[in-house]
């Protein structure tokens, strides 16, 4: 049960309790009321409306039409009370008192401090018009209503923000624990199997040695992934894309990046890094030994661009389309799919004997907000 739900229920209780004010004062001055029949009718109407609007708020939330109707009915109640609760010999009729604050609280809780202050001002104006004009009582009532609406709206906003931060922190904690559990499972199963395949492949030799070499590369990449800061803290604000891409740097891979951090939302940075990793893995798996790879990270105000270029044999014309038709969607899903979901675009330039260049361009969020890998290098 969230803050808003609890607040709506609390306001409903307050409104019913606040009805006791005009009821008590009206009962004490009943013999002196100018219209003794109209007073109970007005009180019953207020009870009925309070019950109806409170039920609606607690069940459906703050609907625009109902919230506006609540203000209109309250303003009409102020006008009606000037006649129904008039007392013989007194210039000022009995006030509805705290009950008037109910609609002000609702407006502040629904739409914030400005709306709460506006609702308080509207009710205050009706009070001055129908209850004797500008006087000490009406001015004090106006000040209390306006300040109540403003304060409640401000506090509700702070409360909702705190609730959202708590929810996100809980999600981060749960996600971190789950990833730590997965990391342990991976370490105890997949990594050990890859290490065994690498060792046995080297012992057997021949084609098995090549399988062992590939298993060793995957083991190294997987260890880097589960030990990286991006994996252990996947939801922490923003990430520096240079750090995620830089883990590929090695003897055969050269990384060039700006001197300043390339910060992106964590989820965006992870997806871009995953697309880059897929492109690098394609080179390692499908190009001859000794193929060099260059990673270039470029950053401007509108977008971040990562280029993955190799000096391999290149991709034959039409091979990417053939791979996609065969259901091999590594490039289409792992690279183009990820970048496309981020609102970006991928450009592939390749040909026999000229290597391959994959350019991934991802727009920066406003809030700062193909084919298979088997086809790569002509395979």
Automatic annotation (TrEMBL):
Pfam families: DUF5931, HATPase_c, HisKA_3. The lineage of its organism: Bacteria, Bacillati, Actinomycetota, Actinomycetes, Glycomycetales. The chain crosses the membrane at residues 12-30, 36-53, 65-85, 91-110, 117-134, 140-160. GO terms for molecular function: phosphorelay sensor kinase activity; protein dimerization activity. InterPro entries: DUF5931, HATPase_C_sf, HATPase_dom, Sensor_HK_TwoCompSys, Sig_transdc_His_kin_sub3_dim/P. It comes from Glycomyces lechevalierae. Keywords: Kinase, Membrane, Transferase, Transmembrane, Transmembrane helix, Two-component regulatory system. Residues 267-366 form the Histidine kinase/HSP90-like ATPase domain. SMART domains: HATPase_c. This is DUF5931 domain-containing protein. GO terms for cellular component: membrane.
């Amino acid at each position: 049960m969230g803050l808003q739900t609890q607040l709506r229920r609390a306001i409903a209780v307050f409104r019913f309790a606040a009805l006791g004010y005009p009821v008590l004062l009206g009962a004490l001055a009943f013999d002196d009321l100018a219209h003794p029949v109209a007073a109970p009718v007005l009180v019953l109407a207020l009870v009925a409306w309070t019950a109806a609007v409170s039920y609606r708020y607690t069940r459906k939330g703050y609907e625009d039409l109902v919230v506006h109707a609540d203000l209109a009915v309250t303003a009409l109640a102020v006008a009606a009370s000037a006649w129904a609760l008039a007392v013989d010999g007194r210039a000022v009729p009995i006030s509805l008192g705290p009950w008037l604050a109910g609609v002000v609280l609702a407006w502040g809780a629904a739409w914030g401090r400005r709306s709460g202050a506006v609702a308080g001002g509207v009710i205050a104006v009706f009070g001055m018009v129908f209850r004797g004009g500008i006087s000490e009582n009406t001015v004090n009532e106006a000040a209390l209503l306006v300040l109540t609406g403003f304060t409640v709206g401000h506090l509700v906003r702070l409360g909702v923000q705190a609730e959202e931060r708590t929810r996100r922190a809980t999600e981060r904690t749960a996600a971190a624990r789950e990833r730590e559990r997965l990391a342990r499972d991976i370490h105890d199963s997949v990594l050990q199997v890859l290490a065994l395949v690498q060792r046995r492949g080297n012992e057997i030799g021949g084609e098995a040695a090549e399988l062992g070499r590939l298993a060793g590369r995957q083991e190294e990449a997987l260890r880097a992934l589960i030990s990286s800061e991006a994996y252990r803290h996947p939801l922490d604000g923003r990430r520096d894309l240079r750090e995620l891409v830089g883990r590929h740097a090695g003897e055969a891979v050269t990384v060039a990046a700006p001197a300043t951090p390339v910060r992106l939302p964590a989820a965006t940075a992870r997806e871009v890094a995953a697309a880059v990793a897929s492109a690098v893995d394609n080179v390692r798996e499908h190009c001859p030994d000794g193929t060099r790879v260059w990673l270039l990270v470029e950053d401007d105000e509108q977008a971040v661009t990562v280029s993955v270029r190799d000096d391999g044999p290149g991709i034959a014309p039409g091979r990417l389309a053939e791979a996609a038709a065969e259901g091999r969607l590594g490039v289409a899903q792992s690279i183009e799919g990820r970048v496309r979901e981020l609102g970006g675009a991928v450009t592939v330039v390749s040909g026999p004997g000229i290597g391959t260049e994959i350019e991934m361009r991802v727009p920066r969020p406003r809030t700062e907000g193909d084919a298979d890998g088997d086809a790569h290098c002509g395979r």
